[in-house]
């Protein structure tokens, strides 16, 4: 692998959870429903049916673009992407080509690397093919319930060189769309589908192009391989690693890998060829004649920004600065929006009751608090109760200490020999004898004094 550097770009499709589909009023809540029950003449592509764009879906698409630091052109349009496949009833897909809603964004990874976002555009989802065996015969069935569901495609620049960066980017993207509450991004249900484009760049500076000029290390390879419709971060890693190995072997033999679309085989962790990769011209894009161009004003875009929540990276930094939390605690508590909101609500409740943000964070993380079962105010009361120390009968305490020391003579001896940590073991044994919370520091002093007095005898 030292002879080649991976060049990886990502295309991610995110289904939006609007109530209706992208261009009709059919319900978009199709998962698990009886096949072909969420359809109408528009999403079935019947003659004469006209599409009407879903305003909420377009707003959410733009909000995803804004969260990825994209520019939002004030003029955009829909286009027809023409291709023939059984799950595409119209024979074309309404998508966007040269004037997408969002362009030229970026997202920063934890290592400081910036990943360019080429475009974020809106399109409609296709139907779903189901391959089954009926009465001994293999058949393909089509369910059009998914056809026409709003689908956002996020396309990066080929800025990745490792699967670690790919995984972090995908996790960040999933986190962002969940924070925006525009998609559940549940990959098992197909809400978020991943398609890496992989090629290898030679590290050999003697490599030349067709004009006999040295190829720059930044020059893109003359081919790329796309792996379609992967539904887990783990499988993306496996697909990329398999392709790196496969393509490096081809390049070592002096050949160039085919530019093609491949599928991922979960059982073997390999990829298989599906078809030669299409160019944009193959799709014969042209402006969608039934939907006029869309124009925005700067004020409209600013209004959408005001509707957006605080995003994960900003929240993480604020948790560290405002509440004095560690990096680890801030990452855990900001990972999911509902958990972050629960934490801040508990902090607000505990503010006037002497409960610190750090105590609340420790309780949520270490005790694995079920935030669906306890109100934030109940959590605060629980922390206060567990923090209260009760007065203990001195005679009873003295008896228990003597009992523990007599039963743990080895620990006492270890302490005498200089193993100071032995006192903590003895402390633990004493504390176990009490069901209520008592002053551990006071007990430690009493044990130490008693052991030291034994030393003097």
Quick overview of this protein structure:
By secondary structure, this protein is α+β, with helices and mostly antiparallel strands. The chain is 36% helix and 20% strand. The protein folds into three domains: 4-209 and 274-298, no CATH class; 310-387, no CATH class; 394-456, Arc Repressor Mutant, subunit A.
Describe the structure.
With 457 residues, the chain is of the alpha+beta class. It folds into 3 domains: 4-209 and 274-298, no CATH class; 310-387, no CATH class; 394-456, Arc Repressor Mutant, subunit A (Orthogonal Bundle). The chain is 36% helix and 20% strand. It has helices at residues 55-67, 163-180, 233-252, 298-307, 312-323, 327-334, 337-350, 357-366, 376-387, 394-407, 409-416, 422-431, 440-456, and strands at 4-15, 75-76, 79-82, 92-95, 102-108, 114-124, 128-134, 137-143, 150-156, 192-202, 225-228, 260-265, 270-276, 286-287, 294-295. The strands form 4 sheets. It has an 8-stranded mixed beta sheet, covered by helices on one side. Strands 4-3-14 form a 3-stranded antiparallel beta sheet, with no helix packed on it. Strands 2-15 form a two-stranded antiparallel sheet. A hairpin with a 5-residue loop joins strand 5 and strand 6. Helix 7 (337-350) packs across helix 8. The chain is elongated. The mean pLDDT is 90.
Topology, element by element:
Blueprint lengths: L3 E12 L39 H13 L7 E2 L2 E4 L9 E4 L6 E7 L5 E11 L3 E7 L2 E7 L6 E7 L6 H18 L11 E11 L22 E4 L4 H20 L7 E6 L4 E7 L9 E2 L6 E2 L2 H10 L4 H12 L3 H8 L2 H14 L6 H10 L9 H12 L6 H14 L1 H8 L5 H10 L8 H17 L1
Parallel strand pairs: 11-12
Antiparallel strand pairs: 1-9, 1-10, 2-15, 3-4, 3-14, 5-6, 6-9, 7-8, 10-11, 12-13
């Amino acid at each position: 692998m030292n002879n080649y550097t991976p060049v990886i770009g990502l295309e991610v499709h995110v289904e939006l959870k609007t109530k209706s589909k992208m261009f009709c009023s059919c319900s978009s809540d199709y998962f698990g429903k009886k096949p072909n029950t969420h359809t109408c003449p528009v999403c079935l592509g019947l003659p004469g049916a006209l599409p009407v764009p879903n305003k909420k879906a377009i707003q959410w698409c733009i909000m995803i673009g804004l969260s990825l630091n994209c520019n939002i052109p004030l003029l955009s349009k829909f286009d027809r992407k023409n291709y023939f496949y059984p799950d595409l009833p119209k024979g074309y897909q309404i998508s966007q080509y040269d004037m997408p809603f969002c362009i030229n964004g970026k997202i920063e990874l934890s290592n400081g690397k910036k990943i360019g976002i080429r475009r974020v555009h809106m399109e409609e989802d296709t139907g779903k093919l189901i391959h089954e065996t009926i009465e001994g015969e293999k058949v393909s069935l089509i369910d059009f319930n998914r056809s026409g569901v709003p689908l956002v495609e996020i396309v990066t620049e080929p800025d990745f060189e490792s699967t670690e960066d790919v995984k972090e980017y995908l996790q960040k993207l999933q986190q962002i769309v969940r924070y925006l509450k525009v998609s559940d991004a549940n990959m098992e249900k197909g809400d978020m589908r991943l398609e890496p484009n992989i090629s290898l760049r030679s590290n050999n500076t003697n490599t030349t192009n067709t004009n006999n000029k040295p190829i720059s290390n930044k020059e893109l390879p003359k081919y790329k391989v796309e792996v379609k419709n992967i539904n887990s971060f783990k499988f993306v890693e496996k697909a990329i690693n398999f392709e790196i190995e496969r393509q490096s072997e081809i390049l070592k033999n002096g050949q160039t890998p085919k530019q093609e679309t491949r599928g991922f085989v979960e059982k073997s962790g390999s990829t298989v060829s599906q078809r030669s990769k299409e160019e944009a011209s193959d799709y014969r894009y042209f402006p969608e004649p039934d939907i006029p161009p869309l124009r925005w004003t700067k004020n409209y875009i600013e209004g959408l920004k005001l509707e957006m929540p605080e995003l994960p990276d900003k929240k993480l930094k604020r948790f560290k600065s405002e509440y004095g939390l560690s990096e680890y605690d801030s990452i855990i508590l900001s990972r999911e929006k509902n958990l972050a909101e629960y934490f801040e609500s508990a902090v607000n409740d505990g503010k006037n009751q002497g409960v610190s943000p750090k105590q609340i964070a420790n309780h949520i993380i270490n005790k694995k608090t079920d935030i669906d079962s306890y109100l934030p105010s109940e959590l605060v009361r629980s922390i206060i109760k567990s923090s209260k120390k009760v007065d203990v009968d001195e005679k009873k305490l003295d008896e228990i200490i003597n009992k523990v020391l007599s039963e743990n003579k080895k620990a006492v001896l270890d302490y005498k020999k200089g193993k100071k940590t032995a006192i903590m073991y003895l402390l633990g044994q004493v504390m176990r004898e009490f069901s209520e919370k008592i002053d551990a520091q006071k007990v430690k002093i009493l044990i130490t004094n008693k052991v030291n007095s034994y030393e003097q005898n």
